[in-house]
Amino acid sequence: EAGVTQSPTHLIKTRGQQVTLRCSPISGHTSVYWYQQALGLGLQFLLWYDEGEERNRGNFPPRFSGRQFPNYSSELNVNALELEDSALYLCASSWGRGPYNEQFFGPGTRLTVL
Amino acid sequence: AQKVTQAQTEISVVEKEDVTLDCVYETRDTTYYLFWYKQPPSGELVFLIRRNSFDEQNEISGRYSWNFQKSTSSFNFTITASQVVDSAVYFCALSLNYGGATNKLIFGTGTLLAVQP
Question: Which tens digit of pLDDT belongs to each residue from B91-103?
């Protein structure tokens, strides 16, 4: 069974640009989560999508947004990139909505903002 | 406030030593879920275990064991006879039961385990 996949693997952008990261969940999983792992800040929850709707949002500015498609894949968009957006962005998926469901992570997209 | 503390930033052991990674959590909720994840150098977080707040049974899986104690709000992870392949960053995480309204994992800062041959 294929795991969570993310693309691209690496990305280099400059300040002010926009970026789109993509995630495909494990087959059968309906929930997709996005986390940011920035140096010195640890793993922080960004967004949760389930059945095409945004269910929860972490403490991030509105320029971080996303969506979930009918096939449950998801995109994370970051507008007006800032240097501090440089981080590993991890996507995870789970079966169902319960907080008890294990979240399975993808390999991440490493974003560098110059 | 909900919080997970992993006080050990880095641990270095020699192969075959036993090592315990500490995790202390804070929450006022009576129902919650605790997780351990492993992050090898490749970056992908690997799920290891989930424990429910109402189940204090300890668990053993091969060389891995987990000790959950609600009285001290701890969920410690022990690796017996460590191996070089165990080298990774280990994260403890907390998930709260708001009727499924949040689902976010609250992570500790992680413990970097280095197993020397």
Answer: 999 998 765 557 7
